[in-house]
Design a protein that fits this description.
This protein is mainly α. It is built from four helices and no strands.
């Protein structure tokens, strides 16, 4: 398995690029949501807050709205 280059790892200069791409992957990528979560957390080394933020952006804010009961 390939490893992330340092520039894309947490704290790296191009980390935001990976986080932005993750939003598109979560919204439009193939596979089950569980598989996407596993990929983001393990392969992209996203933290849980980073993943939840990307998931919320991918769902156009529905994650937060459903959590708040709106």
């Amino acid at each position: 398995m390939k490893k992330l280059r340092d520039e894309f790892r947490p704290g790296g200069a191009r980390r935001q690029h990976i986080l932005d791409k993750a939003v598109d992957y979560i919204a439009n990528g193939p596979g089950l949501q569980n598989d996407k979560m596993h990929f983001c957390l393990n392969n992209l080394e996203m933290s849980m807050p980073e993943y939840l933020d990307a998931l919320n952006k991918a769902s156009n804010g529905e994650l937060v709205r459903s959590a708040l009961g709106d």
